Amino acid sequence: MRIKTGRIFLHLFFIIVSVIWLIPTIGLAVASIRPMAEIVAGWWNFSPLTLTLKNYGTVLAKKGMARYFLNSIIITVPSSIIPIFFASLAAYGFAWSKFRWKNLIFLGCIAMMIVPLQMVLVPLLKLLKFLGFLNTYIGIILVHSSFGLPFAIFLLRNFFVSIPPELIDAAKIDGCSEFRIYWKMILPLSGAALASLAIFQFVWVWNSLLFELVFLKTQEIQPLTVGLINLKSRYLPEWNLLSAGSLISLIMPLIIFLLLQKYFVKGILAGIGK
């Protein structure tokens, strides 16, 4: 009986925390479907209450958010896939291959995680300009991919070493090549780690603003984060349009999380179990 009562209180606690956590998002959603004249009095003021979807139409059609949304997808999807793929190859090497200075090289990869972004902006700007990749999709994708590699290698390598070595030895005895072991055995067993990394990398790139402001100057290729700044008017912020644009920017991260949450939760529970 005590266990059942404790579980009820625990669930009640989590429900209360969830509701409190969702209050700002609820306020944002309410503001996104109300006219500006009603929002200035506070989104919690429901007298009068006028609901409309014109804010979304204005944001998508007149303010160019549809193009910004497409640009974010074009930038974020490759910037998530590329570092995960190459990091998984590197992590397999660090976990299961023997070569000279392996630990030192891995330590160098970890050290790159603590380099402040602001320190490399000017060198990267000059490098991209020299290569002809400044103000291009390719340039910003390469920048995000390179900065996502250190953490991806660190996370995947630590997961790969937890796989029983007997499986690797058995596969080698059966004549499997290193790439076949990596492709047919390691990756299928690493679904939780790959899903967790995909969520983190996707959200980081999707919400990135600093790199986009520095390396992308043309409005036609700028992502949603820059588009939200452009929604801000000069004198009085149009809160109804900003709220609608902010909710639009939440769509893709929410979809990615819902698609991968099964593996993400498994990864968290596995980490807690260890």
From TrEMBL:
<feature type="transmembrane region" description="Helical">
    <location>
        <begin position="12"/>
        <end position="33"/>
    </location>
</feature>
<keyword id="KW-1003">Cell membrane</keyword>
<feature type="transmembrane region" description="Helical">
    <location>
        <begin position="241"/>
        <end position="260"/>
    </location>
</feature>
<feature type="domain" description="ABC transmembrane type-1">
    <location>
        <begin position="69"/>
        <end position="260"/>
    </location>
</feature>
<feature type="transmembrane region" description="Helical">
    <location>
        <begin position="137"/>
        <end position="160"/>
    </location>
</feature>
<keyword id="KW-1133">Transmembrane helix</keyword>
<keyword id="KW-0812">Transmembrane</keyword>
<keyword id="KW-0813">Transport</keyword>
<dbReference type="GO" id="GO:0055085">
    <property type="term" value="P:transmembrane transport"/>
</dbReference>
<feature type="transmembrane region" description="Helical">
    <location>
        <begin position="181"/>
        <end position="206"/>
    </location>
</feature>
<keyword id="KW-0472">Membrane</keyword>
<feature type="transmembrane region" description="Helical">
    <location>
        <begin position="104"/>
        <end position="125"/>
    </location>
</feature>
<dbReference type="Pfam" id="PF00528">
    <property type="entry name" value="BPD_transp_1"/>
</dbReference>
<feature type="transmembrane region" description="Helical">
    <location>
        <begin position="68"/>
        <end position="92"/>
    </location>
</feature>
<protein>
    <submittedName>
        <fullName>Carbohydrate ABC transporter permease</fullName>
    </submittedName>
</protein>
<dbReference type="InterPro" id="IPR035906">
    <property type="entry name" value="MetI-like_sf"/>
</dbReference>
<dbReference type="InterPro" id="IPR000515">
    <property type="entry name" value="MetI-like"/>
</dbReference>
<comment type="similarity">
    <text>Belongs to the binding-protein-dependent transport system permease family.</text>
</comment>
<dbReference type="GO" id="GO:0005886">
    <property type="term" value="C:plasma membrane"/>
</dbReference>
